[in-house]
Amino acid sequence: MALLCSHHRLPSSHTRSGDVDWVCSDLLAMGPRRLYRVLVDQARAFQPDWVIGMSDAQYGWLAWRISLEVGAKLAIDAYDNFESYMPWNSLLHLLWRRSICAADLVTAAGPQLALLLQSHRKKGHGAETIPMVADPDFVPLDKSECRQNLKLPADATLIGYVGSWAKTRGTSMLIQAFRHARHLRPDLTLLVSGRPPKEILDEPGVVGTGYIPDAALPLLINSLDLACVITAETSFGRYSYPAKLCEAMACNVPILATATAPVRWMLGGDEGHLAPPGDAEAFARKMLDILSNPYTSYRPQETWGTQAKKFSYLLSTVKCEN
C-alpha cells in the first residue's frame, strides 16, 4: 500500500494498480489531526512489516510516527538534503534527524548524502546508496522527429536546461555562460522549460517552452544538441543528484554539467562532461567544445528494476538494531 499526501484541497481517492493500493489524502482538506488518524488507521488495516518514508522531511517524521503506532520496522529514503529546504524550520529538521536516527534502514541517492545521513545515526545499519535512475520512457529517439513533434526549429543548434531556477542551484551562471558562447556562435539557442524569471526569457537567444507535459519530456531532451545540468556548491547542491542528468544520459544526449561532488560521481568522474561550478567562462568554453565534438560516453545506467531489487534485498536482510 502507498499512502500519498497532497496539500491542494484535493478529494481523497483510493485506486488499485497491479498489486498496489494507492491511497491519496489531502492535508488542507482534512486538517493535520484527521489526516494523521486516517493514515494510521489505513496502516493498521494493512498491517505492514515496514513503513517507508520518502519524498521530504515531513514524511520521514510521519513514517516514523506511523511505524511506532503499528509496530512496524522503519525505512527512510532521501534524494536530496531536505535540511537545505526551509532552513528556518529548525523544528522540522530536528524531527527529520530523529526519524533518521530511529530508522532501521536509511537509503540515499548518492554516497555524499548517505554520509550526511549516517552522521545523524548513533548505531544500527549504515546508510545505503540507491542511485537515481531515469524513468523507462527516457530512451534515445530520432532528433528530427522529436523537434517536429514539439514544433522546434529543425536546423537550429539547441542547448537546453530543464529544471528549476534558484540561487541554490546556481542557474544564473548558465545565462552568463550562454552570453559568452553566443558571442562566438550567434546561431545558438537556449531552450528553457517551466517558469524562469522574465529577465531570462528576455535574454537574446533564449526560448521558453513553458511547462512540458511529462509524456513530452523525453521528446524535449532528445531534441537537444546539448543538455546543461547546473548545480552549485551550496547546502543543496553538495548533496544533489539531478534526475535530469539521469534522463539525458538515458537518451544518449551530450551533457555539460557543473562538477559538484555528486554530479562528478554520477558521471564517473568523466571530465569531458564537467565544468567548474560558478565559472561561466569555463562553462562557455566547454559548451562550444562539446557542440563542435559531441561526446556521449556514459557508464551503463541502472534501471527501476535493478534499484527495486537492491531495495528489496536490503529490506529482507537488514538487521534491526536501533
Keywords:
322 residues; alpha/beta; Rossmann fold; 6-stranded parallel sheet; 4-stranded parallel sheet; 13 helices; 13 strands
Note down, in words, how this protein is organized:
This protein is an alpha/beta fold. It has two domains: 2-133 and 304-317, Glycogen Phosphorylase B (Rossmann fold); 143-292, Rossmann fold. Helices cover 39% and strands 18% of the residues. The protein has a six-stranded parallel β-sheet, sandwiched between helices. It has a four-stranded parallel β-sheet with strand order 4-5-6-7, covered by helices on one side. Strands 1-3-2 form a three-stranded mixed β-sheet. Helix 2 crosses helix 3 and helix 7 (172-184) crosses helix 12. It is globular, with a radius of gyration of 21 Å. The relative contact order is 0.11. The model has no long low-confidence stretch (mean pLDDT 94).
